[in-house]
Design a protein that fits this description.
about 270 residues, alpha/beta, 8 helices, about 35% helix
């Protein structure tokens, strides 16, 4: 008789059908190297496709052991980052109260250390846990290196000097009922305000800088150019000031209604 073991946590991954259906296979290969004691389900939230044109790759993904595919043509909600909307949709379908969030274009060098730490923290009662995020597939341009250095310095300053949890989509985990309550209160609009919103409601938020837990996310969006960099930095500063304060109705302040529908070809953005 086959004994079915309930998963210890759910891995939720947004998958942009216009560019990530191949990338997610590499992520699944990384996760397949997990060699710890825990069981996981993986929920792939495939989105960004026309209602009448369900991607043919979904059947193969759904046939993979331990993988469930949630196909939603569009997860976009006014003012909310599309990736966060996809994660919330995936958490509503998750079989466990613990969600580990990764991106389809991520690479996980040490899945055993990462996933074991997340399960331990969530089962200890933490509301949010997150780790270091670095980059892969970055173009060799000085302006891009500068952008990445500024990004890491800003995250360190917020986390260490200002005490602001710097959660981002590439690697964090949450207690699902807590996060869905925050969403129902209108406190969420982006990955970056998950940590601050959770802490404001008394949830414990923890961080690990252990190099074994690093996750690498794609730098494919970085095109380079000093003028683009200065414009981006000004935009990010204004965006942080609008989004980081914990308050209901934050989605109305993001300006994300104008976000383009992301489409990639050969892992480069075409719009």
């Amino acid at each position: 008789m086959t004994v079915i073991t309930a998963p210890d946590a759910s891995i939720v991954v947004p998958v942009n059908a216009q560019g990530d259906l191949e990338n997610v296979l590499t992520l699944l290969d990384d996760l397949g190297r997990y060699a710890g004691p825990h069981e996981f389900e993986t929920v792939l939230v495939v989105n960004n496709f026309a209602d009448a044109r369900r991607p043919p790759e979904l059947a193969a993904l759904d046939a993979l052991e331990g993988v469930r595919v949630l196909a939603v043509p569009s997860v976009r909600e006014p003012g909310v980052a599309a990736a966060l909307s996809a994660r919330i949709a995936g958490m509503r379908e998750a079989a466990t109260p613990y969600a580990i969030h990764l991106d389809a274009d991520c690479r996980v060098p040490d899945p055993t250390s990462l996933l074991d730490w997340y399960v331990h923290r969530l089962h200890c009662g933490d509301g949010v846990a997150y780790t270091r995020v670095r980059y892969h597939s970055v173009r060799r341009r000085p302006s891009i290196y500068a952008r990445i250095a500024i990004h890491h310095a800003a995250r360190w300053s917020k986390r260490v000097l200002l005490g602001i949890p710097t959660t981002r989509g590439g690697s964090y985990a949450v207690h699902v009922p807590m996060l869905l309550r925050l969403d129902a209160e209108g406190l969420l609009a982006d990955e970056m305000n998950v940590g601050p919103a959770a802490r404001s409601r008394g949830a414990r938020v923890v961080y690990s800088g252990d190099r074994r837990m690093v996750v690498r996310t794609s730098g494919r969006m970085f095109a380079g150019g000093w003028w683009k960099l200065w414009r981006y930095l000004g935009y990010r500063l204004r965006y942080n000031l609008r989004v980081l304060p914990v308050r209901p109705g934050v989605a109305a302040r993001t300006g994300r209604e104008r976000d383009p529908v992301r489409v990639y070809r050969a892992n480069r953005p075409v719009r």
